[in-house]
Amino acid sequence: MDEYEILEDSMSLEQTHGVEIISQNFPVAVGSQKQSIRGKGFTMVEDEALCRAYLAISQDSIIGTNQTMVNLWERIRLCFSSQADVDCNRTTVSLMKRWSKIQKAVSKFCGFLAQVERRQKSGTGEKEKMAEAKRMFSIDERNKSFMFESCWEILRHSCKWDEIMTPSQKPTVQTTTSSNPSTGTPTSLESELDLDQQPSREGVNRPSGIKAALESRRKKVIDDVKFDQMAANQSQIINVLTGISSRGIEREQQKAADRQKKAEDREARRHYLAEKNEREQRKEDHIIMSMDMSNLTPMQRAYYEQRQQQIIARTGML
C-alpha cells in the first residue's frame, strides 16, 4: 500500500468511527544502520507542554480540519518546542507516542471518575471521588498509579477533549461489591454472571441491572475492537513516517558525499595543473639558459642575458 494511502485510511477511520487518530512528523533521528536509540523520558513539564500544544493546534479556528496529519503534528512539534523547560530535540514520532499514552491513560481515568460520580451519594467531596477513581485506575492497570493528573487538569475543560471523550470511548469497568446485608441481594457483576448461568424460569423477567450489565459488556467488546484497529493503524503511520524520514536522511548523506567528491576532484585538478605549469616553466628556462648567443645581435643578447638573470634569481641558481 502506498505510504500516503495509509494516512488517508487513518483519516477515513477517524471520520467513520469518531475516533481520534494521532499522527506525527518526519524528522526522526535514524542512524545509517536504522537502529533506534531510546531517548530520555518525558518530564511532567513536557507532558503538560505537549497537552497545551495539542489543544492549541488541533483547535486552531483558522486552519481547522483543513490540515493533514503530518502538518498537524509538525505544528504541534513546533508549538511544543517553543515552550520553556522542554527538550527541543524531541521528534514528532516521540511526541505522537507520548500523546497516545497520555490520551489512553487520561481517557481511562475520566471513565473511572464518571462511574464514581454516577454512583456516589450527594455530598461526597471532590478529593474522595478523585481518590476512588485513582484506586480503580490502579487496580485496572495492575497497581500502576495514575501519573497524568496535571495533564487531566489541562484537558478536562477543553472542547477538543470533550470530542475525543465520546461515550463509546469511556471505559466501562465493573467493580466487585459485597452483597446487601439486609436483603442478601448480590450487587456485583460476579453475582450477575452467576444469575446468567442459572436456568431462566418462564414468566419471570430478568432484572434490569443484569440487562444493563450485558449491554455494557457487549459495548466494551466493540470498543476494544475499535481501539485495536486504531492502535494498528497508528503503528502503520509511525512506520511510514519513520521510513520517509530515514530516506530523507539517506538522501542528505548522499548529497554530502557528492559534495565531498567534487571538492576532492577540484583539488586533484588544481594539483595537476600546477605540476603541468611547473614542467613547462622548467622546459622554457632550460631553453633560455642553454641558448647560443654568439650569433645574436647586441639587443637580443641583452634580452636573453636579462632573462637568464631572472631565472637564476627565481630558482636560486648561483
TrEMBL record:
Domain of life: Eukaryota
Biased composition (Low complexity): 175-188
Region annotated Disordered, chain positions: 167-212, 249-281
Pfam family, one: NAM-associated
Domain annotation No apical meristem-associated C-terminal: ranges: 144-311
Official protein name in the record: No apical meristem-associated C-terminal domain-containing protein
Organism: Rhododendron griersonianum
